[in-house]
Structure formats: structure tokens, C-alpha cells
Specification:
The protein has about 475 residues and is α/β, with parallel strands linked by helices. It folds into two domains: about 5-240, Spore Coat Polysaccharide Biosynthesis Protein SpsA, Chain A (Alpha-Beta Complex), CATH 3.90.550; about 265-455, UDP N-Acetylglucosamine Acyltransferase, domain 1, CATH 2.160.10.10. Helices cover about 20% and strands about 30% of the residues. The chain has a 23-stranded parallel β-sheet that branches. Strands 5-4-1-6-10-7-11 form a seven-stranded mixed β-sheet, sandwiched between helices. The chain binds uridine-diphosphate-N-acetylglucosamine and magnesium ion.
Length: about 475
């Protein structure tokens, strides 16, 4: 069952707001924190995936501010629902800036999520939102229990267990008992937009950071005896916020483990799963075998029976059934057909295609080139902007000279042609089918079908005598 909220009549009335305007000072990086990557995808992307599933993209708003142009570039499809917070005066201020747009959209409830919680899952959020609505709370928030709560807002409760307030780490001021509180605020809230405005208006900045805190809503509502709901989710690592490089690495590791387990359950064999990194959009079929360490990212697809040896980088590539990618190869934006062999030490660059059974070996670079079925480029070659026909055999050290300093030119080679070692194919050039090119040739002119082309100085064996009298 999809967790999408529209399916439930009672909760159609929900929009979402993602807070993503902050710099992320503790990350000590110029890049906005929500654009830091986990498995080569920005943190915010993960939050969007969950929100899309839960609410649908048309009702997701994002507060942006610090280096907003980078967020616009990263998520161009979403900029219609970006809200600008020019000065980042705190999480409460971010909601104040958004209220008008949210109210205008006409949904009563708003799920507010910090943009730095990439591990969240739709199902639990759904339960939380439904619970807030069922209880008709003015403010609901999710809390979690941490053995080490340092850095988080602590949840203080009254003796009867009801929530009293959230105290930020920086506002604890030596009250050790608060420091010891293990229940912390996750940064996920559900607000009743019909009733929250007066409380947003009352947020103040009398705190250690002199910011408007969204967490002060809890305090204000409790004082006014308005219903506040705190849903304690226990020891749920999936609500961990990312604030520091260390937390980024921990969350990335958890995300990595989550993805690895999914593929193991599906039937992907990994001999060294701790060192396999697979991006969230990658698809790997059952029956693939991975040795590791291996990195597979982007929209890569690995078909059944393929074998991935260790030390590989594969990005946005399709690897065919029973293909074998051997050690230390780098593949980006390529198609490798069924039963192909790649590497060890091959580099396949974007827009290249190896068709069924083709082979590339050590120290071979292929760029924007097609190697048709059964074609072999086994040693020390550069093939760029080229088409090599079926069963073409390229000798060691062959280079396509595709660039004249200004423009790129194409090379094409017909089927079953044999190119001798150390050949330079000076593009634009076209070689026919079933040709032989003599080793060491510099080919500057087209070669018709079934010709032997040799273009190098004829060898002369001359009499020779040097000054010391050696030789004959
Ligand atoms: C916040 C909570 C804290 C909670 C923690 C959970 C407040 C005051 N504190 O603290 O109780 O335990 O999250 O992870 O909310 N942002 C804006 N505009 C701003 C400031 C921040 O959009 O003016 C965004 C940031 O980009 C970020 C999110 O809000 O995605 C949270 O900000 P952050 O600085 O990480 O808050 P925490 O200190 O982690
Ligand atoms: Mg945070």
C-alpha cells in the first residue's frame, strides 16, 4: 500500500514545508548543508522522495535562502514552490515566511520537516500526521530517544507526562538535568494552519542564538492550554538530523546499509558487502555477483548474471546480462551489452556503447564510441568519436586522432577489419569492412572494403659502419 496521504479521506488536507534555507554552520562548508551528498545524491533529494510518496510534489513547499541559486539548479522542477527566506533568522522565522503561501493553498494541516533528516520514511510520518489530525492538536511533533542527545533540542515533560517545552542545547545554561534528558526533538512537526498564526506571531528571539525558534510554538501553546502532541518514536535512527561532517558520514552509512540489505534480500550476491556503495536510484537484478569494493551510482542498471569485480566506479550506466566488469574500471554514462568483458583498467566515458560480446582490456579509454558485437580493443588504446563494426579487432596502442585542436571528427571502421598495433587513425576517416591496416600506420585517407592499407616508411636495412669501426 502506498503511503500517499491523498488515499485517506481524512488527511487530504495536508501540505508540506521543508526547511532548507540554513547554511549549516557546523558543517564548516560553503555548500548549503541540504546539498551535501549521501551516496552521490543531495540530502534534500532524499527528503523530497519521502514527501513525494506521502503528499505529492504539487503540495511540497521548500524554504530556501542561503545560496538559493544552487538549490534552484539542483531542483529545477521544484522552484515554483520555493519560498525565499532572505535572512535566515531561525526555523520559526522560516515558517513565518511561508505561512501566506501555505494558507493560500487552502490545506488546513502542514507537515513541517527540517531539510537535514534524510533517513525519514513515509510510513511513520503518515502515522504521525494522522495522529496529530485525529487528536486535533494545534502543534504535533515527533521526538526520539538518543543515548547521546548532544546538539538536539531536549523535550521537557511535566510530571503527568504531558509536554512542557523544548529546550535547545545552547539554551540549557548549566542546568545539568536538562542536558541528561534523552528525549529530543526530531525537527518534524505537524501544524494546524487555522490556529497556528497567533502563536507564530508571538515567537521571540530571547534565546542564546537570538533566533526565532519553531520549537517555541510548543511552549506558547502549552502556556495557553492549547493541545500539543509529542509522538515519541523511541530509538529511531531514521529521524537523526545531519549537522556535522561526522553525522553526515553516520547517516550515509545507515543509508548505505539500508540499500545493501534491500539488494541482498532481492538476491544480489555480495562477497564484501561492507565495501559496496550503491546509490538510491540504482537497479540491480537478482543473480548479479559483486566482489567489492565497488561504487555504483546514478541511474545505473545491472542485469542478471553480470559480475562486478573489485575497485569499480559505475555511474549512470547499463551493464548487460552476464557481462563481466573486471577490476579497476571506470564507467560513466555507458551501455555495456550482454556478455561483454570490460577491463581490468578500462575507462568507458559518456555516450559509449559496447554491443553484445564486445571486449575492452587494460589501459583502454573509449569515448562517445560504439563497439559493435564481438569487437575487441584489448590493450593500450584510445577510441573516441568512433564506430567500430562487428568483430573488428584493434591492435595494441591504436589511437583515434579525433581532435584537430578546434573540432572533433569521427572515425568509422567496417566489420571484421583488423587494425595493426600502434596505428593512428586520423579523423575524419572511414575504413571499410574486412580490411587490414599494417602495424604502425598513420591512416589519413579512407580505405575501401577488403584492402590492406600500410602507411609507414618502408624498412631499409643499410650497410653501416661507425667511427669506431664497429658494424660492417
Ligand atoms: C533543530 C531544532 C532542534 C531539533 C533539531 C533536530 C530548532 C530551533 N531546533 O535544531 O530542537 O532537535 O533541529 O534535527 O528548530 N533553517 C531554515 N532557516 C533558518 C534556520 C534553519 O530554513 O533560518 C533550516 C535549515 O536549513 C535546516 C533546518 O532548518 O534544514 C534545521 O536547522 P538547524 O540549524 O539544523 O537546526 P538544529 O540546530 O539542528
Ligand atoms: Mg539540524
Amino acid at each position: 500500500m502506498s503511503a500517499r496521504l491523498q488515499e485517506d479521506g481524512a488527511v487530504q488536507d495536508v501540505s508540506a514545508l521543508i526547511l532548507a534555507a540554513g547554511k549549516g554552520t557546523r558543517m564548516k562548508s560553503d555548500r548549503p548543508k541540504v546539498l551535501q551528498s549521501l551516496l552521490e545524491m543531495p540530502m534534500l533529494w532524499y527528503v523530497y522522495q519521502v514527501m513525494d510518496e506521502l503528499i505529492g510534489p504539487e503540495r511540497i513547499w521548500t524554504v530556501v535562502g542561503y545560496q538559493q541559486e544552487l538549490l534552484r539548479t539542483a531542483f529545477p522542477d521544484r522552484i515554483d514552490r520555493f519560498i525565499l527566506q532572505s535572512d535566515q533568522l531561525g526555523t520559526g522565522h522560516a515558517v513565518q515566511c511561508s505561512l501566506q503561501a501555505l494558507v493560500q493553498q487552502g490545506r488546513r494541516w502542514c507537515l513541517v520537516v527540517n531539510g537535514d533528516v534524510p533517513l525519514i520514511k513515509a510510513r511513520e510520518l503518515r502515522r504521525f500526521v494522522l495522529e496529530t489530525i485525529r487528536r486535533q492538536a494545534l502543534v504535533g511533533f515527533l521526538s526520539l530517544e538518543l543515548d547521546d542527545p548532544a546538539g538536539y533540542g531536549r523535550v521537557l515533560r511535566q510530571e503527568d507526562g504531558c509536554v512542557r517545552m523544548i529546550v535547545e542545547e545552547k539554551d540549557i545554561e548549566g542546568q545539568a538535568f536538562i542536558r541528561d534528558v534523552k528525549e529530543v526533538n526530531s525537527g518534524i512537526y505537524c501544524l494546524d494552519l487555522d490556529r497556528v498564526q497567533p502563536y507564530l506571531d508571538r515567537l521571540g528571539t530571547t534565546n542564546a542564538q537570538q533566533e526565532y525558534y519553531i520549537t517555541q510554538l510548543v511552549d506558547l501553546c502549552v502556556q495557553d492550554e492549547k493541545p500539543v502532541l509529542a509522538v515519541n518514536s523511541g530509538h529511531e535512527a531514521r529521524y537523526l538530523g545531519v549537522n556535522t561532517p561526522g553525522e553526515l558520514a553516520s547517516c550515509e552509512e545507515m543509508m548505505r546499509g539500508r540499500i545493501i540489505r534491500q539488494f541482498q534480500d532481492k538476491g544480489v550476491i555480495m562477497h564484501n558487502p561492507d565495501q559496496v556503495r550503491i546509490g538510491p536510484q540504482v537497479d540491480i537484478e537478482a543473480g548479479v555477483e559483486i566482489t567489492g569494493p565497488v561504487e555504483v551510482y546514478g541511474r545505473s542498471q545491472i542485469l542478471s548474471g553480470a559480475k562486478l569485480d573489485s575497485h569499480l566506479w559505475i555511474q549512470d550506466s547499463r551493464i548487460g546480462a552476464r557481462a563481466w566488469i573486471r577490476n579497476f574500471s571506470h564507467l560513466e554514462g555507458v551501455i555495456v551489452g550482454d556478455q561483454c568483458q570490460v577491463g581490468p583498467f578500462t575507462r568507458l566515458r559518456p555516450a559509449s556503447e559496447l554491443r553484445t560480446g564486445a571486449k575492452t582490456g587494460n589501459f583502454v579509454e573509449i569515448k562517445k564510441a560504439v563497439l559493435d558485437t564481438g569487437c575487441k580493443v584489448n590493450h593500450l588504446s584510445y577510441i573516441g568519436d568512433a564506430y567500430l563494426g562487428p568483430e573488428v579487432n584493434v591492435g595494441a596502442g591504436t589511437i583515434t586522432c579525433n581532435y584537430d585542436g578546434k573540432n572533433k571528427h569521427r572515425t568509422s571502421v567496417g566489420k571484421q577489419t583488423f587494425i595493426g598495433s600502434n596505428t593512428a587513425l586520423v579523423a575524419p576517416v572511414s575504413i571499410g569492412a574486412k580490411c587490414v591496416i599494417g602495424a604502425g600506420s598513420v591512416v589519413t585517407k579512407d580505405v575501401p572494403d577488403e584492402k590492406l592499407a600500410v602507411s609507414r616508411a618502408r624498412q631499409k636495412n643499410l650497410d653501416w659502419k661507425n667511427k669506431r669501426g664497429r658494424g660492417s
